[in-house]
Structures are given as structure tokens and as C-alpha cells.
Design a protein that fits this description.
Chain lengths: ~260, ~400
Amino acid sequence: MNIIVCIKQVPDTAEIKINPETNTLMREGVPSIINPFDLHALEAGLQIKETAGGKVTVLTMGPPQAESALRDAISMGADEAVLLSDRAFAGSDTWATSYTLAGAIRELGADIILCGKQAIDGDTAQVGPETAEFLGIPHISYIRKIEEVRDDYIKVQRLMDEGYDVVESSLPVLLTVVKELNRPRMPSLKGKMAAKKAGVRKMGKDDIHADENCIGLKGSPTQVKNIFAPQLKAERKMIEGAPEQQVAALIEELRTIKCL
Amino acid sequence: MSIVVRIDKCTACETCLNSCPFDAIVLKDGKAAINEYCNYCKTCISACPEGAIYETEERTQGAEHRQRIEDFKDVLVFAEQREGKVAPVSFELLGAGRRLADGLGVKLLALLPGADESEARELIRWGADRVYLCSGPRFNNFNDDLYAGALTKIINEQKPSIVLAGATPVGRSFVPRVAARLRTGLTADCTSLEIDKGSGNLIQIRPAFGGNIMAAIVCPDYRPQMATVRPRVMKRGEYAENRAGEIIDFQCDEITSGTKVLETVKEVSGISVNLHEAEFIVAGGRGAGGEKGVKLIEELAEALGGVVGASRAAVDEGWISYSHQVGQTGKTVNPKIYIACGISGAVQHLVGMQSSDIIIAINKNPDAPIFNVATYGIVGDLFEIVPMLTRKIKEIKGL
């Protein structure tokens, strides 16, 4: 079983703060991490390998620095790592990113492709399904449980708004996973050693036979027009006093505006 | 297009470094330099006090594209159903779609798979001019390939300029496939949609970086312009019992799928988690401290006839399950009253609840950012305030 796990190196958005004076992001000291959802995808890949046999390859598209994310993945147990990096990929939106990832996956070959449900910096959840489309294979999103994996068959639970669906698919298939699926393992000492020594395979636009019109900024249908700080409303009324008074005053306010 | 620094004008003041949302500017040889993280958002251009950063050559549109773009006119809404009933998000999309269609002077179309004619009629009452009804048992359950096939087919046939779908587990899963197939842009989780008066392009506003910044996205050279919108973000339009409209039987028998839904399981927890529909939400955060605090929050929710919400902190701690999570990685809600208990108010939480009609914040820390969006703020201990509030409300309601 050839398993490819797509990961993304992202800034830890929970650590990002807005400078209230300039309304800009303060990224200083914000650590780069593997997108948290991707860790669950990696764990799922490792578990499938442990039961069904095979090989787990981690794949990331990003700048050269993203290699450290791949090494972290190897320390968790991934067998091989591929860095898809080329200046020509810069400015890719989800369409161009998916096109590029699909090109690499086609070269590498895979039975199961795993992705986190979304990346915490972009939050689009689009790259997984779009990549499956470029590969011409089915995908199932929001996997919360993998019930059965065979050579050419998979049965999973897909999280929905009011419960879940049990879905089956032929292989190859692309799955995007949610956090409920598993608990990602910690890197082992052996893994950390392996991560230091491991070779990371690098691929660029020529290695995936990319059409120049489909990659990077030129290949991206969407463009960022501008970026601005979110507007928050500020019409608050602070209710002071002892707890009893606060509660009484709040109830009174809500009654006045007929909300109770 | 490329963003360039004029070395002669750069004073190395670092204003641009701090303004860049992508960490794409560094100081190199005492001057600002833009690296491969650049996302071409142009924030630095307006940030630079020296006017030292500028943009070279606008991206040129191919003539063949411009030709094609003119062929695309109407607005199309993908209408979602659950168990044969149109989901509320679809009515909201029709509200937004109607506004865009009227602004452009075009028709509002809807694609409705897996429902019947009476539901299609509802879509017309909520603003659709024409509904393409894709009936048949195959479309009752959500299937990515079938839904993607049907949406692709109607887009190829009708050539809408704008396509809107709900940012639900359904829309977020299959709509990207359609965008990939049609070689066009898709913007996820839009919070605002406007037509640019000059170009006629759709300006799609969405939160990014965990809601820390908002980005305006355009798709100028490709059609249709596709966007998903979260439930409870757009306002419904006017409901008109007798609105005229057409229902067209849309056959998609030829579309096949590699996946199959074997079973659909509904999960009902103790208290309903239908956050989208709730009028009252009482939400707990890290300040709830554990099961004891969560219990107090549940009791208040119950007294109000509302549901329990949670911040990411409370979910990550395992006190409240993910289906209750409000915010950027959870749900967007806008109840009549949102009571935030022990929630500090990280931006990623605020983007999920700030459009609630009334926000009541209860927090020990007077500087908690949650108070910035609160209608009413109470600085105090939720373990004191919440049970007292529950008692009062029960008294009023005679419970």
C-alpha cells in the first residue's frame, strides 16, 4: 500500500496577535508548525501502514524552509519525504496548489492520499478535494473513522452536521481527516535520529511536467485584492456592582429590550 | 505581476516587515527584500511610508478569456437539502444571490438535487427565478461525484457568472471539485459579497489566518466566480408567496460515482447542538475550568431553552465536544443572545459569533478582548454569576 500524506507548514495562528495600534499582524516569534489537522492525517497513514503494510510518504509544497516540517514528519514515523519547491510555484491559490500537488502525486504513485481537512492559515478546505479532481480519483472529506481498508477498498465514517455517513470507495482515493479520527503520536527517539539522517527528495516544476500556465501566480484564478483588519463592533455597556446587582441589572436590560 | 522594492528609496524602517501578513519581507543588505512567501496581497505597498514598494505590470488577460467572460451572466445558487427539506443556508444564499442578480440585472438560478417540486417552489418564493430540480433517489444522500457532476453540468449549460454554495460539510467537500474541473477560482467561507462597480467583478471577503485578517479576493479572468458562504452569515431576502418562477426537471442519469453512502447515522447528544438555528447560545471557554463549570453553563442554556457553545480552548481541553465549537474552525452563529462565559475572546472565536444580536460577556479579566464585542459586559466570576442568572431566568419563566 502506497500512502501519501500531504502536509503544510503553517504559522501557529493561535499565537498570532494583532497590533491594536497599526492593525497589522504581529508575527514575530510566531512558531512554524505542521498544520494540526495534517498530524492526524499522518497518524492515520502510519496506522494504515501498520495494519496493511506499505510505505508512508510525506509530501509538502512550500519554500525550502518547509523541509523542517518534513523532518518532523519523519521523526513521527514517515518513511520518505518529498519537498515540492520551486520559485515558479509562488503565489499559488488553491487551484494552482492542487494542480501542482496532483502532479507530484502522479509521479510518486499512491493508493491512499491523506490530507488534513483544512490548513489553519488559509482555512479553505479546498486543496484536498481539488487535488482528487486533478488526479481523477474519488475523495471523501471529514473522515472521523476508518472502518476497513483492503487492497482496493476502503470504508470510512464521514462527519456531517447532524451525525455521520458511512461511505465506501474504491482505491485509489483521497481522504481529508478531522481531529476526532485519532491522537497523533509523539516523535520517537529512533524517529528523531532517522529524521536527522533522512534524505529529502526535492521536486520542481520540471519533475512534475507542469504546464507553466497552471502553476504559481499565473496559474491561479483567484487573486488577493487587498487585506485588512477585521472590524469589531464596540457598543458595549459594562455592568458594575456586586454579583447580585450585576445579575439583576442584566435581567432588567434584557427585559427592557424584550429579549426575555 | 511582481512586487518590487526601490532600493534607493528604502530607509530600512521595517514598517513593511511588520505589515506583511505572510512574513515575506526580510532585511537584506540593509534594505527590504521580498521573498518567496509573497502572496501578492499588496499590503506592503500601502504600508510603506516612503512609497518605495510598487507593483510591476498588471497581469494581462488573454483576449480569448475576455471573450468567454462575457458569455457568463446569471447568478446560480446551489441549494442544499437534508432529508428532502431545503436547508436554511440555501434561503440565505438566495437572499445574497437575489441582491447580486438585481444589481447586475440578471436572473437568479438555483440547482436543487434530491428534493421534490414543493421544495423547489419554496426556493422561488425566497427569490429564485428558475429552479433546476434534480430528483431521483440517487441524489437524496450527499455524494461528491454526483453533486459535482450535476453542478458542473448546469454551469456548462447555463453559464452563470457567479455560483454560490453553502460552506457546509456538503458544499465545502464537493464544490472544490467543480472549480478544479472548470478551471476557475473558488473562495471559501465568504462573509461578504459585493460587485466591484468599475470592473463588474465579484469582490469576495473572507477571514484568513484564523480570522486575524480579512482578505478581499477576486477572480477577474475566469468564470464562473465561485464562492462558499457559511450558514447564518447572509440575510434572507423577502419571502413572496406568489412569486413567479420556473421549475425545470434536470436529468443527470449519466453521472456516475466512485463512492457510495452505505448508511446515514444521526447523532443526538443530550442537548441539541444545532447552533445555527439556536436563538440562545451559552458558551464556555477556558474559564469554565472543567466539568463543574460546563455543568453550570448547560443549566443556563437549558433554562433559556438554548444550546451550549464552546471556544476552541474548552474543546481542546475535552470539556465540550467539537460539534459545539464556535469560531473559525468551528461554526458561525448569530443567535438572539450569545452568552460568553469564561471566554477570553481570541479573534478566531470572535469571527464565529460577533454577528449575534446581543452578546453578553462574563469574564474575570476586565481586559479580556471578548468585552470589545460585548453588548453587555460583566466582570466577575462565572461560578457566581451564571448560577444566579439561571435561577433568575427560571423564576421569570416560572420553571
